[in-house]
Amino acid sequence: MSWLPFFVAITALAFVAQAAAITLIYFQFKRTSERVERIASDIEVRVVPILVRAQILIEDAQPRITSVMADAAEITYLARSQAQKIDRVFTELLDRLRLQLAHVDQILTGALETVEDAGKTVRRTVLGPVQSATAVIRGIQTGLEFFRSRRRQRGDGRQTPDQPDENLFI
Fold it and tell me: Residue 95's Cα: distance from chain center in Å?
């Protein structure tokens, strides 16, 4: 008995089974491919208008965005320039204020020195003679009291114990 026809038959059956399996795979792949194509076309139908709208919006907004960016750059430039101007103005203002304060300080110092000199002059011219006049008046008073006390001593002939010799000193 020869095994060759048996193996040929088994090989033929395997070949037919493989062909059937490949055919089934082919038809299954064809159905899956059709489904994928339908889904892709459905997605394309839904997505294409959205993409077109997005592209229109981007094209419409691009000049506006460019304009906004240019305006923002210009605003930044103007703000920087204004800040620099304000800095210059405040610096100049502070310098002027320092100069004015120094000038006011000089004026007040001069005025105070003048007032002090005037006070010294008033003291010298007014208080000096007043003190001299006061000294002269005290001298006269002391002299008069001395003469009065001498008259009393001559008239009584004795010295009063309640009057000390303090009146004699000037």
Answer: 21
In a domain, 164, yes or no: no
Tens-digit pLDDT profile for the chain (170 aa)?
688 889 999 999 999 999 999 999 999 999 999 999 999 999 999 998 899 999 888 888 888 888 989 999 999 999 999 999 999 999 999 999 999 999 999 999 999 999 999 888 887 888 778 888 888 899 899 988 888 888 877 765 555 555 555 555 55
- Asked whether residue 54 is domain-assigned, the answer is yes
Separation of alpha carbons 69 and 65, rounded Å: 6
Please tell me the pTM assigned to this model.
Answer: 0.39
8 A C-beta contact, residue 142 and residue 167: yes
Please check whether residue 104 lies inside any domain of the structure.
yes
Question: Can you give the residue range of the structural domain that contains 120?
Answer: 7-158
Q: Is 165 a domain residue?
A: no
